[in-house]
Design brief:
Layout: H1 9-12, H2 18-29, E1 37-40, H3 50-65, E2 69-74, H4 84-96, E3 106-107, H5 112-124, E4 128-131, H6 135-142, H7 159-170, E5 180-183, E6 198-202, E7 216-218, H8 220-230, E8 235-239, H9 246-256, E9 262-266, E10 269-271, H10 278-286, H11 301-307, H12 311-321, E11 329-331, H13 333-347, E12 350-351, E13 353-354, E14 357-362, E15 371-376, E16 386-391, E17 394-398, E18 418-421, E19 426-434, E20 440-448, E21 465-466, E22 469-470, E23 475-482, E24 509-516, E25 528-531, E26 535-539, E27 549-555, H14 560-566
Parallel strand pairs: 1-2, 2-3, 8-9, 10-11, 12-25, 14-20, 18-21, 23-27
Antiparallel strand pairs: 4-5, 5-6, 6-7, 13-24, 14-17, 15-16, 17-22, 18-19, 19-20, 23-24, 25-26, 26-27
Helix pairs in contact: 3-12, 8-9, 12-13
This protein binds adenosine-5'-triphosphate (ATP) and magnesium ion.
Adenosine-5'-triphosphate binds near residues 43, 54 and 238.
Length: about 575
């Protein structure tokens, strides 16, 4: 089910959601002495996506709102999948979204020594033991929701023996999987997470930061709560799938008697027509479905950036969807597009480009003549300034702006019809020239010299206004037209025997050669621009001055308004 966006900004920042309510309560009771200290804890095993943006806006946003702090912490306990490439991209993306972490970034790997000490303490307290069951056996012994677990034969191993074995694990005496360290909690707990979870495992692998110093690595559930504790985090906000893990989170901190942060869960973001799982995103990249992590179709932050989304638009989106505890909230992609359009409308200059050109010859316009029209770059905001647009006898307009047999109320060009060329002149179509196959190759028109600037010479009304470019001055540009990456709204629509990849939309990228007005070739990579009547576009770094490349960020048509009405 789709989620309706919450009320406007003014109402949203007043502590009305459940997380802000809890923080307000904690501040009232002075539980954390009124401090608010959050963290954003990505695992550096992929690029950040729009789901992470929700978490970033929430964690950094809370810190800002409450005059608190927010740490950036890399949750880097799995050496096999992690890489500094990901670390760097994550830092860049958080900053691009407009947030700055407190001090230096933190790394769970910085705590490996302290975590190890904590593990030894648990062993000494009789709260952890070294187990010899294999991973499969551990799963088997764990039981199910309806059947209690069976204790491992090694559960009652004396503490000194576990300690000695644990030290030998650390010293590298055993191969991967030979032993694990498990917390000794309750094999009959109704919460399966509490049935003696594994807290350390052997992994002979190079770590991107600690190199070969360690061959045992702490598990997420053990690392996360203690990292929060070491950093003095007050509110540890995570997604709902960790709800059952909260009991373990609390157990570790209580058992060790250390500073205790409060874990709070919220619903993760799902978006229609895309996937927000790093595993699936990696697959799209590795198997060549897309150009890379920053392909403009990807829901990654770098993909959205290359597509032309702005930090303001993404923050607005995150603020509109709000935070809730309800599971499985799926948000319409068109809401994200709506937010993007809203912002680009204010910040993108307007220019003219013709995506599917057909030639127009103004038969009564002098052959060698060129005029220059000074046109504003934004219709409502003079601060954008203006640029000059050349005009001559040969122009291009959109093929779709001409109909031989126009339907009723068709105000664009047709035989005998008169239209306004934006900022230039009125023209009337006299003849459509065709090739041998009957395709229109040229429209022969006449212009009214008295309509210069696009204004009516005698008060006669012209309904249609077309965009155009001068054929002699136009710059050919590669324009990449993007559509939804998948043909199915949600993962749950995937039929049996198929995978999400079977729904990859082959039309999600269409490339055309457009004719652009010269000014467009002067824009730098990353610039936003509206092609009048067509949509918002962003200059791609692949392009050059001779052959610029534009990515379509979003069309001008708002499909969100329609969806909103239905809800
Ligand atoms: P994935 O399932 O894509 O691998 P993850 O949760 O494993 O995501 P992390 O790097 O661990 O990725 O995520 C960092 C933070 O971002 C976590 O606090 C996580 O809860 C949050 N997060 C990840 N995905 C989403 C999402 N779709 N919506 C909201 N928050 C998310
Ligand atoms: Mg994770």
């Amino acid at each position: 089910m789709s989620q309706t966006p919450s009320a406007p900004e003014a109402d949203r920042s007043q502590g009305t959601d459940f997380i802000r309510t809890r923080i307000n309560q904690d501040n009232l009771s002075r539980r954390f002495e009124g401090r608010v200290h959050t963290r954003f804890p990505p695992e550096p095993n992929g690029y950040l996506h729009i789901g992470h943006a929700k978490s970033i806006c929430l964690n950094f946003g809370l810190a800002k709102e409450y005059g608190g702090k927010c740490n950036l912490r890399f949750d880097d306990t799995n050496p096999v999948k992690e890489d500094t490439e990901y670390v760097d991209s994550i830092k860049q993306d958080v900053q691009w979204l407009g947030f700055q972490w407190e001090g230096e970034p933190h790394y769970a790997s910085d705590y490996f020594d302290r975590l190890y000490e904590c593990a030894e303490r648990l062993i000494i307290m009789g709260k952890a033991y070294v187990d010899e069951l294999s991973a499969d056996q551990i799963r088997e012994y764990r039981g199910t929701l309806t059947r209690p677990g069976t204790p491992s034969p090694w559960r009652e191993r004396p503490a000194e023996e576990s300690l000695a074995l644990f030290r030998r694990m650390k010293a590298g005496e055993f191969e991967d999987g030979k032993y694990v360290l498990r917390a000794k909690i309750d094999m009959a707990s109704p919460n399966v997470v509490m049935r003696d979870p594994t807290i350390y495992r052997i992994r002979h692998a190079e770590h991107h930061r600690t190199g070969s110093k360690w061959c045992i690595y702490p598990m997420y559930d053990f690392t996360h709560c203690l990292s929060d504790s070491f950093e003095g985090i007050t509110h540890s906000i995570c997604t709902l799938e960790f709800e059952n893990n909260r009991e373990l989170y609390d157990w570790v901190l209580d058992t060790l008697g250390v500073y205790h942060s409060q874990q709070i869960e919220f619903a993760r973001l799902n978006l229609t027509y895309t996937v927000l799982s790093k595993r699936k995103l990696i697959q799209l990249v590795k198997e060549g479905y897309v150009r890379g992590w920053d392909d403009p179709r990807m829901p990654t932050i770098c993909g959205l950036r290359r597509r032309g989304y702005t930090p303001e638009a993404i923050r607005d989106f995150c603020s509109r969807i709000g935070v809730a505890r309800a599971a499985d909230s799926v948000v319409h992609y068109s809401l994200l597009e709506f937010c993007c359009r809203e912002h680009l409308n204010a910040v993108a200059p307007r220019c003219m480009a013709v995506l599917d050109p057909v030639k127009v010859t103004i038969t009564n316009y002098p052959e060698g003549k060129t005029e220059e029209f000074e046109q504003p770059l934004h219709p409502e905001d003079e601060s954008f300034g203006s640029r000059t647009v050349p005009f001559c006898r040969e122009l291009y307009i959109e093929r779709d702006d001409f109909r031989e047999d126009p339907p009723k109320k068709y105000f664009r060009l047709a035989p005998g019809a008169e239209v306004r060329l934006r900022y230039a002149y009125y023209i009337t179509c006299q003849e459509a020239v065709k090739d041998a196959d009957g395709n229109i190759i040229e429209l022969r028109c006449t212009y009214d010299p008295d309509s210069r600037g696009g204004s009516s010479p005698d008060g006669r009304k012209v309904k249609g206004t077309l965009h155009w470019v001068s054929a002699r001055h136009a710059v050919p540009a590669e324009v990449r037209l993007y559509e939804q990456m998948f043909t199915t709204e949600s993962d749950s629509d995937v039929e049996e025997g198929k995978t999400f990849l079977d729904y990859f939309n082959p039309e999600s990228e269409k490339i055309v050669t457009a004719m652009a007005e010269p000014y467009l070739a002067t824009l730098n990579a990353g610039s936003h621009v509206q092609f009048e009547r067509i949509g918002y576009f962003c200059v791609d770094p692949d392009g050059t001055q001779e052959k610029p490349v534009f990515n379509r960020t979003v069309t001008l048509k708002d499909s969100w308004a329609k969806i909103e009405k239905k809800q």
